[in-house]
Amino acid sequence: MCAHRIPVIHPFSANPDYDFEIRAAVGRTAAGAGSPGEILAATEGVRRKDHEGWFEAWSGLGDRTAAVAAEAAGKGHRVSAAEAYLRASAYYSVAVNALSALDDTDRLQPMFARQQRAWEGFLAHTSANATAIEIPYEAGSLPGIFFRASGGTDPAQTAPTLIAVNGSDGSMAGIWSECVEPALKRGYNAVVFDGPGQQSRLFEENIPFRPDWEHVLTPVLDAVLAFDGVDAERVAVYGVSQGGYWVARALAFEHRFAAAITDPGIVDVSTSWTTHLPHGLLKQLDDGDVEKFDREMALGLKFSPETARTWRFRARPYGTTGYGETIRAVRAYTVADVASRITTPLLILSPENEQFWPGQAEQLAALAPSVSTVIRFTAAEGADGHCQPLARAVTAQRMFDWLDERLAV
After folding, report:
1. Distances from the Cα of 203 to the Cαs of 53, 197, 322, in angstroms?
2. How far is CA 96 from the centre of its chain?
3. Residue 382: CA atoms inside 13 Å, Cβ hemisphere, count?
């Protein structure tokens, strides 16, 4: 008898970062935020270290798709326009991430503006009931969108509501495909917003991340509970990628949610940074020798341009300057000391071969055992890797089935 064969999905690129981006882009096609042929054709032939070529592949694809959208809109083809604008916004978002890794930031804001214009084009033409909102936050506000449940035209009619927390570099087109589109199909309202360090707050206002997300999510929940059509007893929250940390952190202090989902479970954000650093180098930082740590990091990154680009991309939203300052800042992003306070029913997604925070889904469940449910995703079903990039329809089915049962949908 032959042993059971675990299928292997071969990489789309020899560059693991490019490969992951392509997988995520292909995964978004399940909700219309991309077309597989466009994606694979545009990225075919981009060499492993051709970062400029990688950026041009995505910006060019975004430009071509945005032109299709504008032409369709001009001829009154609203469905075609909405679909093309959504794809264009998703493609531009990958180009924005590519630029975020470069020293030259002059093109970054204009490219983000293209991404936003395409997203606004989608909102203007989609059949989804979408309303722009401003969420009161400290001395200002956070921009967001309230999507009313499909078929919900009567403001007095309430529905369950899902608040979506994006990841560290996620776009609106991304969060649409990851949870908004499947939520609307199931009769949920959905709310998306840019928090500190995310998207418009970073690129337009230069506002960095903050670890204490309860000071963000509580004002968001306060605002959502005041909206017409929201059933206050059936409001849930979903966090994707690093949003999984922010949701878990906020849940330790904010107990009004009826249910929550982290995709995946994250306890300590900093391990995705420190695991790859030599122990001796980290000891310098722990001993307080920040200057020596910075000097050795700068020297090491001179010999590894790809690692240097990844560092720039990941460090930008933290608002830090030196290498040691960045590591110290990221180390504050942990729920190890507060997760036991979580009282909200919590679904934790745990993919096999999680490349950024392996094992942390189970760690989070162990810290809040009385409220946690873990759902695992495997390579055998094509659902492994961070946020199950090639299995978003499977992910939506499992998490919304769980959520339906908790909220009696």
Report:
1. 23, 8, 20
2. 14
3. 12
Q: How many CB atoms lie within 10 A of CB 352?
A: 16
Q: Tell me, rounded to whole angstroms, the distance of Cα 268 from its chain centroid.
A: 17
Q: Hunting for tokens 């089935």 — which residue is that?
A: 401
C-alpha 283 chain-centroid distance? 32
Judged against a pLDDT cut of 90, whether residue 5 lies above it is answered with no
Q: In the structure, how many helices (H) and strands (E) does the chain have?
A: 17, 8
Residue at 280: amino acid letter:
G
Could you tell me the CA-to-CA distances from 237 to 163, 243, 259, 301 in Å, in that order?
Answer: 5, 10, 7, 38
pLDDT per residue over 273-297, tens digit each? 999 899 999 999 999 999 999 999 9
Strand 230-240 versus strand 259-263 pairing type? parallel
Exposed, middle or buried by CB within 10 Å (0-12, 13-18, 19+), for 262? buried
- Quick one: DSSP state of residue 327? H
- Phi then psi for residue 134, to 5 deg, are -120, 120
Where are the domain boundaries for CATH 1.20.1440.110 in the chain?
16-122
How does pLDDT run across 125-168, given as a tens digit for each residue? 999 999 999 999 999 999 999 999 976 556 668 999 999 999 99
pTM: 0.95
CATH superfamily of 16-122: acylaminoacyl peptidase (1.20.1440.110)
b (16+ CB within 10 A) / e for 50-72: ebeebbebbbebbbebbebbbeb
Task: Specify whether the CB–CB gap between 347 and 373 falls below 8 A.
Answer: yes
Q: How many CA atoms lie within 13 A of 286 on its CB side?
A: 9
Q: How far is CA 333 from CA 249, 261, 355, in A?
A: 9, 18, 18
The torsion region of residue 339 among left (phi > 0), alpha (psi -120 to 50) and beta comes to: alpha
Helix (H), strand (E) at residue 51: helix 51-74
CA angle 72, 78, 81 (to 5 degrees): 45
At residue 142, the 3 state secondary structure works out as strand
Where does 128-269+333-407 sit in CATH, by number? 3.40.50.1820
Q: Comparing C-alpha atoms, which of 213, 336, 330, 332 is closest to residue 267?
A: 336
CATH code 3.40.50.1820 region(s) in the chain: 128-269+333-407
SS3 assignment, position 378: coil
